[in-house]
Recover the amino acids of this structure.
DNA sequence: CAGTGAGCGAGCTTCCGCTTGACTT
């Protein structure tokens, strides 16, 4: 048995380190946190100094057991990350495996190299309990917020909902952005552009934007007779510098933009590259590169592109609350241009490699030329710009250098000839909807959430149905374009969609209601600065200037009364019930509100309590197609309560009724439902219904092609198939479904591909 | 994708941060 046990957080790291330390050292991984507050109980004793109860997480029982065995008779070295969570992991590991924390040696290394590790091992310290306490304060705070707020939502809005310090702010950002977009008033202006003759011909734009179509037209008329002369010519050099190497957030942004990856996809692919030993750790907020990496980059750049392309750079980490436990994301070997097992991995690796190498390269040098062109009889000028790349620098690797825009030689006072001109109507743009990476970027900017939680948070707010990732159709607008060519003025109108969007995060009605409720009753919690302020206090705890009990007490004495107060909010208020008017038949009020299952119409009031026998139970109905809670009127709503509607009887005297269900309109006889997609449930006649019902009955009778007891050959909406009740299998085209034997059917079912597991699919449960 | 049509009860749900699991011979 080895005399020393080194415990790190990740198994990939363990493997590497084991190679650097001798046989005296055994290196194992804790796989992150091993203990946590219980999932089911509150786990915090508020009465007694917020004392937390910890238990070994279910998925870590085995790991803890094996660490315990390995620890026997060994010196324990705790080598978790050098941040708040890492310190807490070290402490929790001790507690979990029965080692007195003060007996263990705590080490931290900032890069995984032999010298760095040897140095760390030579200078161990003990666990920093102040830092551990700061982590516990963070953990308890999140539990208090999450487990007191969520149940309020279960009672007021919908069962199973959730709220928390991070997710509720993420949802709020999206809700508020959508409202800004809705409030945006489109205005249009005209961009006037011209092409002048020269070698080569070149474009220029009018310095002023034109507001109305009549003045746009006037302008072109004026240009028709005008003379043009070169005015001020300005030339100045410019530089462009590379960006810092990737952090989790910037990698997600760039992979989203360039490769179209979702945040989750990016992380899965990066994890594989990390496990393969191709890149450094992918969950980081640091832009720092180790001296070894900087050196390797320099060597590679000089050898490949020449000395003048190399430029050593050190980047400051910009994000608030960064903990800098790791390096930036970079290739483990700076001179390895390609890595990865498949196309997806190769593309992401290439991106990481380029960004890291480019970050150590010289800036690109450009020459910018700006030329003003005077118009006779006008105040405004045309402006032509040219740009020539003198030295590509980092763009040699990273790319991104636009093509040169070359202007002909132009001298002040020189006369110019107009080739053509145009005035194109353009609409002002509303604020941009968040894409997944853009939301991550915003959260990071606000210091909310950590690199390891960005992807899961985005998943959670979608799972809870607060947010949908989707395409949004824009508004159709008419645009005018005037052109002047060969002295002929022409006018054209066309349609364009403005404000359309693809793959963006859009809030649901549920998100709006929950956000409005939280903002009204828990303004401080969903405040964009809440986390930043909490972080300041956590730092004070780590510095020994504040105790964690005191911090939590201060927070809770303010927070808990808000929870109590929110109980008085009525469901109707929270669900933003809208009174539409009174039903003329019954005199009962008709309201539209957000119900447990989405938007709903309600006729009559809910009983005050369970024993209230005076009040008749209210009736519910869905909103008619095409209406929303915002625009529904009493007139639209009333017919919905006419359903279900009795429309007649079958030959056997059974009643036929029509209604609208989850999947559209249907007619019903006894227990048989028949979809009536093309008919209006308010108008469908008895004769039409009977016809549809007979057709459905016939289809059902023809459904079973062959019956082998357990196995059946059935006729489905997508053609014949085999089913055993659980699994289904399609039948090959060349086979006659009527002639299939039981053995053949069984074989086909066994060979049927397993249900397609969708790569992007998330589990509805919170297991990931 | 294999075909659906709730709303009661009881008992359940939930947070944020670390990390990667996997049934056997």
């Amino acid at each position: 048995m080895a005399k020393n046990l080194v415990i790190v957080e990740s198994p990939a790291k363990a493997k590497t380190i084991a190679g650097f330390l001798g046989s005296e050292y055994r290196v194992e991984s804790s796989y992150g946190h091993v203990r946590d507050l219980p999932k089911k109980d509150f786990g915090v004793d508020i009465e007694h100094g917020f004392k937390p109860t910890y238990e070994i997480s279910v998925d870590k029982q085995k790991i803890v057991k094996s660490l315990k065995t390995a620890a026997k008779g060994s010196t324990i070295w705790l080598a978790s990350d050098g941040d708040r969570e890492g310190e807490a992991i070290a402490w929790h590991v001790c507690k979990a495996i029965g080692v007195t924390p003060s007996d263990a040696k705590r080490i931290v290394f900032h890069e995984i190299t032999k010298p760095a590790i040897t140095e760390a091992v030579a200078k161990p310290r003990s666990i920093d309990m102040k830092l551990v306490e700061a982590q516990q304060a963070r953990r308890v705070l999140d539990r208090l917020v999450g487990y007191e707020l969520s149940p309020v939502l279960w009672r007021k809005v919908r069962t199973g909902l959730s709220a928390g310090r991070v997710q509720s702010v993420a949802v709020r950002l999206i809700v508020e952005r959508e409202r800004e977009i809705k409030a945006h008033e489109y205005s249009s202006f005209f961009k006037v552009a011209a092409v002048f003759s020269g070698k080569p011909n070149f474009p220029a734009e009018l310095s002023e934007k034109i507001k109305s179509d009549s003045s746009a037209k006037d302008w072109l008329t004026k240009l028709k007779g005008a003379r043009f002369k070169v005015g001020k010519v300005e030339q100045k050099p410019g530089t462009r510098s590379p960006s810092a190497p990737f952090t989790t957030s910037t990698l997600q942004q760039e992979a989203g933009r360039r490769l179209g990856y979702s945040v989750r996809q990016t992380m899965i692919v990066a994890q594989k590259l990390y496990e393969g030993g191709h890149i450094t750790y992918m969950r980081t907020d640091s832009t720092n590169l180790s001296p070894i990496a900087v050196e390797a980059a320099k060597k590679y750049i000089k050898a490949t592109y020449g000395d003048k392309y190399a430029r050593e750079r050190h980047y400051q980490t910009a994000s608030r609350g960064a903990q800098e436990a790791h390096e930036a994301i970079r290739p483990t070997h700076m001179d390895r241009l390609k890595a990865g097992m498949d196309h997806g991995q190769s593309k992401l690796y290439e991106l990481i490699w380029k960004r890291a190498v480019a970050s150590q390269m010289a800036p690109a040098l450009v020459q910018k030329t700006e030329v003003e062109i005077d118009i006779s009889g006008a105040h405004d000028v045309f402006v032509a710009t040219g740009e020539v790349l003198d030295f590509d620098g980092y763009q040699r690797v990273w790319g991104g250098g636009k093509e040169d825009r070359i202007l002909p030689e132009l001298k002040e006072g020189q006369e110019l000839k107009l080739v053509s001109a145009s005035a194109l109507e353009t609409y002002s743009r509303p604020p941009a909807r968040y894409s997944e990476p853009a939301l991550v970027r915003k959260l990071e900017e606000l210091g909310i959430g950590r690199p390891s939680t960005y992807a899961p948070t985005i998943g959670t707010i979608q799972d809870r149905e607060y947010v949908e990732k989707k395409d949004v159709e824009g508004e159709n607008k008419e645009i005018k374009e005037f052109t002047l060519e060969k002295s002929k003025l022409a006018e054209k109108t066309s349609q364009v969609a403005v404000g359309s969007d693809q793959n963006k995060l859009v809030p649901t009605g549920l998100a709006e209601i929950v956000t409005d409720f939280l903002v009204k009753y828990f303004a401080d919690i969903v405040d964009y600065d809440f986390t930043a302020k909490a972080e300041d206090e956590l730092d004070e705890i780590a510095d020994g200037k504040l105790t964690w009990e005191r911090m939590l007490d201060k927070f809770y004495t303010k927070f808990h009364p808000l929870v109590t107060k929110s109980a008085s909010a009525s469901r109707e208020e929270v669900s933003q019930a809208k009174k539409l008017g009174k039903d003329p038949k019954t005199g009962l009020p008709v309201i539209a509100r957000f119900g447990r299952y989405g938007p709903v119409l309600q006729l009559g009031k809910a009983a005050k309590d369970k024993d209230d026998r005076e009040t008749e139970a209210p009736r519910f109905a869905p909103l008619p197609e095409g209406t929303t809670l915002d625009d529904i009127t009493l007139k639209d709503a009333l017919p919905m309560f006419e359903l279900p509607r009795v429309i007649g009887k079958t030959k056997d005297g059974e009643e036929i009724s029509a209604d609208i269900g989850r999947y559209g309109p249907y007619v019903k006889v006894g227990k048989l439902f028949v979809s009536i997609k093309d008919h209006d449930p308010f108008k469908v006649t008895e004769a039409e219904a009977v016809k549809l019902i007979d057709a459905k009955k016939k289809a059902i009778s023809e459904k079973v092609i062959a019956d082998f007891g357990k196995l059946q050959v059935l006729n489905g909406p997508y053609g014949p198939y085999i089913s055993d009740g659980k699994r289904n299998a399609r039948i090959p085209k060349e086979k006659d479904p009527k002639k299939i034997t039981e053995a053949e059917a069984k074989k086909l079912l066994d060979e049927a591909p397993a249900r397609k597991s969708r790569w992007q699919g998330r589990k509805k449960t919170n297991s990931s």
Notes: DSSP finds 21 helices and 31 strands in chain A. The mean pLDDT of chain A is 88.
